[in-house]
Amino acid sequence: MSTPASLADPEISRTEPTVAQLFTGFLLLGLIGFGGVLPLARTMVVEQRRWMSGKEFTELLGLCQFLPGGNINNMSVAIGLKFRGPAGALAALLGLIAAPTAIVIGLGILYDHYQDDPHIRHLFAGLAAAAAGLLVAMAVKIALPLRRKPVAIAIALLCFLAIAILRLPLLATMLVLAPISVLASWTLDKGENTP
User: Fold this and answer.
1) Is the pTM of this model over 0.90?
2) Which of 142, 180, 137, 144 is nearest to 162 (CA)?
3) What are the tens digits of pLDDT across the range 146-183?
4) Alpha carbon distances (Å) from 31 to 26, 40, 83, 97
């Protein structure tokens, strides 16, 4: 079975973004990313602008999820830093947060005035369902590059079991599974590169 073109890693002509392209790319993400920017970030970075491969994006996301702070904020800084150093990191982060910050302040003022309206309550319930759907779609896209790596799948399943089913603390789970994952990946990669 073949992978749809939209899900495959585009390998043709990778481009390195300028500082301005980092700012405008992440500004657009910040403007259109309601309820979850990560799926849109992957689409922009991997499929549309071809700044990184799907594998590179997934590996960078893994690092960013382990660091404190929001995943997309960490991703914007990491991607900006990778291509244009501190100036790129700052441009990407400012692009990501500038418009949403202004919008949230404006909407917060409106919500404060109309929060008792039942229509507004129903609107937020619908938005929560859409956000959950975005997260599921992102999980599928992130998992695709790992489908041929049984160790990565096993660690992902252990992480899901520990956090979602057993309700173990996230930090404790990551402190145990992250080193195991890194060691397993390093060992397997070393074995593949040995003649």
Assistant:
1) no
2) 180
3) 888 888 889 989 999 999 999 999 999 999 999 998 89
4) 9, 11, 22, 9
- The conformational region for residue 33 under phi > 0 = left, psi -120 to 50 = alpha, else beta, is beta
Q: Assess contact for 5 and 77: CB atoms under 8 A.
A: no
Q: Which residue has the tokens 């660690």?
A: 155
Amino acid type, 18: T
Q: Is the alpha carbon torsion for 176, 180, 3, 74 positive or negative?
A: positive
Averaged pLDDT of the chain: 85
Residue whose entry in the numeric block shows the structure tokens 């491969």? 53
Note whether residue 143 is domain-resident.
no
Residue 27 located in a structural domain: yes
Instruction: Check if the beta carbon of residue 47 is closer than 8 Å to that of residue 11.
Output: no
Provide the residue range defining the domain that includes 54: 1-117
Q: Cα(180)–Cα(151) distance, rounded to whole angstroms?
A: 10
User: Domain count of the chain?
Assistant: 1
Q: Would 170 be classed as within a structural domain?
A: no
d(CA 144, CA 137): 11
10 in any annotated domain = yes
**pLDDT value at residue 14:** 81
